[in-house]
Amino acid sequence: MKDLGEVDTILGIKVKRNSGGYALNQTHYIEKVVSKFSHLKIKDANTPFDSSIKLEKNDGRSVAQLEYASAIGSLMYAAQCTRADISFAVSKLSRFISNPSVEHWKAIGRVLGYLKNTKELSLQYSKFPAILEGYSDASWISSVGDNLSTTGWVFTLGGGAVSWGSKK
Question: Which of 45, 79, 147, 150 is the most exposed place for a label (fewest CB within 10 A)?
C-alpha cells in the first residue's frame, strides 16, 4: 500500500480541508449531470420541488423511460453522497420510473435546475464538537391514492449530515 497524501477527490466528491474541519461537494459531478440532460432546457430553481404540482401516475404512453431511469440514478447518487436537500424530490420522482410522463420530466428538470443553481453547496464537518444529532419529520397520508405517509430523517455529526433518507 502506498500513501498518496491528503485526499482531493474520491468517487466524484471533492474534499477540502479548512481551518475548522472538512467540506465535501459534488460541483464537478453536478455540472456533468446538468450537461448530460441539457436538452431539457433547464432553468435555475430556488427549490428542488414545487409542492403545488401534484404528480400522478401516467396512464398514457411512457416518455423516454430509459433516459428517465438514468436521470433518477444520477440524482440518487448526488442525493446519497452530499445533497440530502434533494432526497425528497428524488424519492417522489423515482416512483414514476416505470412510466414517466412529460410532467415527470418537467419535475426532473426542476431538480436539475436547483442543482445547477446551488452546485457550490457543501457538507461542512467541523472538528469540534463531535455531537451526534438526529432529526425526523413526516407528512401523514400525503398520497391520497394509497393512504401512505412519507417520512424523512437526517443524522449529523460535527454539524454535517452523515446519514439521511426519505421513504414512503
Answer: 147
Asked, for residue 164, whether it belongs to a domain, the answer is no
User: Among residues 80, 87, 95, which one has the least CA distance to residue 111?
Assistant: 87
In this model, does residue 128 exceed pLDDT 80?
Answer: no
Tens of pLDDT, residue by residue over 16-51, are 988 888 899 999 999 999 999 988 889 999 999 988
> How many residues are given for the chain?
168
Q: Is residue 58 part of a domain?
A: yes
User: Which pLDDT score, from 0 to 100, does residue 130 have?
Assistant: 78
Q: How many domains does the chain have?
A: 1
User: Looking at residues 4-19, what average pLDDT do you find?
Assistant: 88
Examine residue 139 and state whether it is found in any structural domain, yes or no: no
107 vs 55: CA distance, rounded Å: 9
E strand intervals along 48-144: 123-126, 132-143
pLDDT of 25 reads: 94
Query: Rounded to two decimals, what is the model's pTM?
Result: 0.82
Phi then psi for residue 79, to 5 deg, are -65, -40
CB 75 within 8 A of CB 42: no
Instruction: List the domain range (segments joined by +) for residue 124.
Output: 9-128
The dihedral over CA atoms of 50, 67, 92, 46, expressed in degrees to the nearest 10, equals -30
Q: What is the DSSP secondary structure assignment for residue 63, as one 8-state letter? A: S
Does residue 48 lie within any of the structural domains?
Answer: yes
